[in-house]
Amino acid sequence: MSTGKKPRTSRAKDGAATAPEAAGIPFDHVARNRRRLALITGGNRGLGLESARQLAQAGVDVLLGSRDLEKGTAALTQLGRLPGTVEVVQLDVTNAADIASLVVKLERDYGRLDILINNAGLGYDETEYAQNADVERVRRDFDTNFFGVWRVTEAVLPLMRKRCYGRIVNVSSGCASLATMGCAAAGYRTAKSALNALTRILASELTGTGILVNSICPGWVATDMGGEGGRPIPEGAAGIVWGALLADNGPTGGFFRDRAPLPW
Asked: Which of 30, 48, 179, 216 could pair covalently with 119 via S-S, beta carbons 3.0-4.6 A apart?
């Protein structure tokens, strides 16, 4: 379901430098992406909103998924003049009806989806230990951090398969690495580890289809969840956008931070 309003569209005035040019993005790169369509879950703030800005700056049209439509619409005011369009869509990744309505909209209005960024997430709690965790809370967090990703991905994959093209970015975390696994934030760690496993499975299943699937860790970022002291949000989002705009010969089934591989 959309807001009922026309998507925000930005165009430079005659003779003025476009946003991508000002940011050092070559014009041909923008032109190549201009017909791409991306969906970002949890898109109304933080990494999701910044990823939307960077993608639209690169010429991609973006659907900004938000559980709260009013908050999503308000978030649009934070975006400046951009070559790509940005439209808010109602999307709670734990709500089957929201997902079904979104697929209907995609099929009716666009007939495609090129990029999926599974960004919606919650539940990072450094006081949560496996030995005394509230398992029901962990279950609820898993519903967003893992099962929500699976639901949305499964729902939109037919649109990517139809065009033999897709980029799926699962926003993960370095704390999910089994190689460096520590304690605390037990529910979040295990959900993101499961998400990494899903990345590997999907990448294997989709080999040769033109659909690339990767887990991206944005690092410790100064978002509402990350808190003060983290890196600037644009720096964290840059790796996500890199994964969304990979060339056809780009990696799949990988786990990356700042374009560099991380240990599983």
From this structure: 48
DSSP letters of 196-244?
HHHHHHHHHHTTTTTEEEEEE---SB-STTT-TTSBPHHHHHHHHHHHH
pTM: 0.86
CA distance 50 to 65: 13
- Closest by CA position to 46, among listed 24, 23, 18, 71: 71
Distance CA 253, CA 226 (A): 26
Domain parsing of the chain, residue ranges: 20-261
Sign, CA torsion 3/8/9/13: positive
Cβ(92)–Cβ(145) under 8 Å? no
Higher pLDDT, 224 or 137: 137
At 26, list the tokens: 């070559």
> Which region among 18-22, 80-84, 148-152, 227-231 has the lowest average model confidence (pLDDT)?
18-22
pLDDT tens across 84-95, in order?
A: 999 999 999 999
d(CA 187, CA 109): 38
Domain 20-261 is in which class? alpha beta
Asked whether the beta carbons of 100 and 124 are under 8 A apart, the reply is no
- Phi/psi for 98 (5° steps) reads -60, -45
| Per-residue model confidence as pLDDT tens digits over 37-84 | 999 999 999 999 999 999 999 999 999 999 999 999 999 999 988 999
- Of 96, 108, 95, 120, give the one whose Cα is nearest residue 39: 120
Of 54, 41, 46, whose CA–CA distance to 232 is shortest?
A: 46
> If you average pLDDT over every residue of the chain, what do you get?
87
Distance CA 62, CA 116 (A): 10
Residues assigned a catalytic role:
188
